[in-house]
Amino acid sequence: MAGTPRRLGSLRSQLVRWLLIPLTLLVAVDAVSVYYNALEVADLAYDRSLLASTRALAERVSVVDGHVTADVPYVALDSFETDNLGRIYYKVTGLNGELVSGYDDLPPVPPDVKRSEVYPALVRFYQADYHDQPVRIAALLQPVYDDSIRGIALIQVGETMEGRNGMTRKILFDTLWRQGTLVTVAALLVWFAVRFVLRPLMQLKGEVESRAPTDLSGFDTALVHKEMRPLVQAMNGYMGRLQALISAQRRFIADASHQLRTPLTVLKTQSELTLRELRREQVDAAELRDLVEGMARTTDAAVHLANRLLTLARAEHGAAEGGTMPLSLSDAARQVALELSQQAVSREIGLAFEEEGDVSIEANALLLHELMVNLLDNAIRYTPAGGHVTLRVRAQSSPGQPTVALLEVEDSGPGIPAAEREKVFEPFYRAGATQHVNPGGTGLGLSIVREIAAMHRASVTLDAPAQGSGLVVRIVFQGVVQLRV
């Protein structure tokens, strides 16, 4: 299936392959090089021996009565053949190309063979076939002279290739044996070295497997090699974040249980009082109505708290639907202002909406709506009758800086002291100055705002208005998609 990541195999096997395959190739190249170098040295040694035989024969060539002669006794030929593994053939040619001694049908010197530069002699080496056998021949030009004639005689000595071929095979087998032994030893050393080097990883694996599910403490980076420490540090960082998340969840559950227990207890008490009132023979309608209205208010508070808890949980875990998309921050803010306008009117609070152009950002529509509802709902709840709340959207540009979108909610309520502005973002924390204004608050509104803002990589700050009392909540969104004036 497209996009499915390829499953990686064993790290040990991959290391061994990446080490041994290039090593084997290098050894093979080295073996070929050593083999040909050895052949060259062997050929040089055999050619030197062949030249020595040719020179020994040339010393027996002389001029007698105006004719070139060669005194080659059988003992000399036997010594030639005894000293070499192959068979020796020779031929002595006179000044005019006549046969002086030896084998007349010995192959002549090819015209394209150049003189050897290795030896200080007029010698040429070539190969030919003689009597269906390959032979190596040395052809030496030997000056001969006496008082009557002067010229150059040609002495040829040929040797069959058995000795050379035997040494070639020996060189080949010795080279393959040494290089094969080297590769085998290297493979064993690499295997044990890889096992030794990977031992800390195996120990780390065993430590991970033996840990209890609740143990999220970090691993000691000194247990692994320097190259693996960033991975262990990343694991420790991840477990630290996981531990913080689990701790936050436990704290959230504990706080939520505590917060829900109060309205549920009140609701149970009110329901019991209502049932007791209904059992009376003469029911006081006014008292009964007060009890039912109290139950309704308690139920509303519990539902409001439950909704806030669900919203906070969804924001903390990023379980939003649909992802992000370009949307108009101005239109979304205007819609929220219309939705909560009736609530503001019922509390005799002036609600205003201000915008400077149409600002569009990349955001999640559902979570952005929750963020603005919580901001505006908080401002209306904590603003006394006769006050005012302003929802403001604008863009801000600075020289050399990207344009940012600002969402501001300003109210004329009691405000939050500077010392408590960071604490109010904690779930269920309520500033002392606000509790008498809205005794039924949950302390979750700004927690939800910060969580949703963090998901959009936006910052949240609290400040006091330029004039009068109250609070200004300012959210800065990076990466403005579009700005229309």
From TrEMBL:
**Protein keywords:** Kinase, Membrane, Phosphoprotein, Transferase, Transmembrane, Transmembrane helix, Two-component regulatory system
One of the entry's Gene Ontology molecular-function terms is: phosphorelay sensor kinase activity
The UniProt entry lists the main location of this chain as membrane
Histidine kinase domain boundaries: 255-481
Domain (HAMP): give its ranges. Answer: 195-247
Report the Pfam families cross-referenced here: 2CSK_N, HATPase_c, HisKA
Alphabetized InterPro entries for the sequence: 2CSK_N, HAMP_dom, HATPase_C_sf, HATPase_dom, His_kinase_dom, HisK_dim/P_dom, HisK_dim/P_sf, Sig_transdc_His_kin-like_C
Gene Ontology cellular component? plasma membrane
Locations listed in the record = Membrane
Q: Which residues cross the membrane?
A: 15-36, 176-198
The catalysed reaction is:
ATP + protein L-histidine = ADP + protein N-phospho-L-histidine
Question: Among its keywords, does the record have Disulfide bond?
Answer: no
Q: What is its EC number?
A: 2.7.13.3
Q: What's the protein called, per UniProt? A: histidine kinase
